[in-house]
Amino acid sequence: MRFRPGTAVTRRSWQRTHTLLLLPITLVVALAVVDLVTPSIPLSPALVIAPALTASFAGPRTTAGVSALAVIAQTLVAVGQPTISTSVHVVLFVTLAVLSVLLVIYSALRERHQAQLAQVRTVAEAAQRVLMRPLPERIGPLRIASLYLAAEDEAQIGGDLYAVTRSEEGVRVLIGDVRGKGLPAIGEAALLLSAFRESAHRHLPLDDMVDAMEQSVSRNTADMDSEEDTGERFATALLLEVPEREPVIRVTSCGHPPPLLLRPGHAVTVPSLRPSPPLGVLVNGEHPLDVLPFAPGDTLLLYTDGVIEARDADRRFYPLAERVGRWTEDGPEALMHHLRRDLLAHAGGRLGDDAALIALHRTPADRRHHHGHAHVRSTARQDTARAERP
What we know:
The structure is a single chain. By secondary structure, the protein is an alpha+beta fold. It is about 50% helix and about 15% strand. It has a six-stranded antiparallel β-sheet with strand order 1-2-11-10-7-8. A five-stranded antiparallel β-sheet has the order 3-4-5-6-9, covered by helices on one side. The longest helix has about 45 residues, at about 85-130. The two termini are about 30 Å apart. About 35% of the residues are buried.
């Protein structure tokens, strides 16, 4: 029987709640015993701490149970301390009861909010799968791994995007970044992805494909523009074509950061491209096509500006080219593992903008024909295991 990840998370949450529950219960018992044994040290007013602690991590039923236990303890203390004025016990009892009711209400509202947030995240994940379909581990001459980090906590997607498709000319790859970030940029990202898939389906040459995307994006964003946003909707994009049998890669840059070419021996180079303006800025503009060497064993790293503009506590940008030189010997999956951990550590665990990365590794032709998918899965497991080693 396969154990589902969601079930594991639920079990860990249940165990954590029951472990934490020992603290308020122990506190109620300890305060009641001390108050009964040493009447000169009145500690019963502190009983309200127990339901307050419970409401911070448990649901309304558990909070109500601990609150009831605290009220019972307060009653026992009142019975066991006849020397203290009855009015004092009544005030303490009423205060504890009222605070307990408020804490139960708070716990119920918090639990409802968490359920709504979980639903939003589920919808966001579903939207991500529809808009940005998971990239294949292997397509044509390439092994692929990707990483997406959304800037907004509630979102799994944002203004960054990527897609891969196969045509008669070879494998085509898109990575882009629309203006803005987070949820407001999703609509524009969807337009760009649709334009890419539509033009790829028509088997257009790469330069004609960029023109078709330019026209599609401009046509659709014109309908979305308000008077304030006129001319403000644009997207940077990098389109690539990897021929099946030629050791080259064709690239068109529309105002997008250049890729990094990784080669064995910790060699990292930045190809010289002739970028054109971003999509949506200049309709029917010229989009130069650059041809770069891309031999078997090479890895091309594509990224959005959210990666290189991530800052640390001293406001220093993330040095991607410098850091990635450590992992040129690793496969795409291990490379993404390293970059995710290193990038988040540099940014203090939170990015200020959406970030996306794609690693394209060209495999030797003989390995593709003779080993097939079993070899790819085995290599991917080895890369991941290597990345997880300390």
